[in-house]
Amino acid sequence: MTDLFSQLQLVAQRQLGKQFVMTSGDRTCRQQRMVSTERVSYHVCGRAFDAVLVPYDAQQQAMLGRYAESLGFRWGGNFQSGDYAHDVVHFDDGRRFPAGVR
Q: What are the residues facing 21 on neighbouring strands?
């Protein structure tokens, strides 16, 4: 996930002239329970992070999401259900490790 975050940072800096800032990375089970009713999360196993463009722009954040998906990762902006439907700051490798967690 470090490689994906670094790639997205470079795209943000070089193409958009913006910073891409991580707001959440790995979480313990206790931390996960504090932020969500979801019982499992890719954050707990080190396979997810949340990050946002600064200053924020919804269209550019979506562009980064599509770019991440083109590399084989998932972008939370396309989630359709659960606590995190349309979670535009979330990126994970659930397409590579579809263990039923998010």
A: 52
Specify if 73 maps to a domain.
Answer: yes
The boundaries of the domain holding residue 80 are 2-92
Predicted local distance difference test score (pLDDT) of residue 101:
45
DSSP collapsed to 3 states, 4-25: HHHHHHHHHHHHHCCEEEEEEC
21 located within any domain: yes
- Mean of pLDDT over the chain: 87
Q: How far apart are CA 73 and CA 65, in angstroms?
A: 9
Residues 19 and 5 sit within 8 Å (Cβ to Cβ): no
Per DSSP, 39 falls in state: S
User: What's the Cα-to-Cα distance from 70 to each of 10, 55, 63, 73, rounded to whole Å?
Assistant: 16, 24, 11, 7
Q: Which residue matches tokens 């329970």?
A: 33
Q: What is the pLDDT of residue 63?
A: 97
Q: Is residue 101 part of a domain?
A: no
The beta strands (E) that lie in 55-100 are given as: 74-75, 90-92
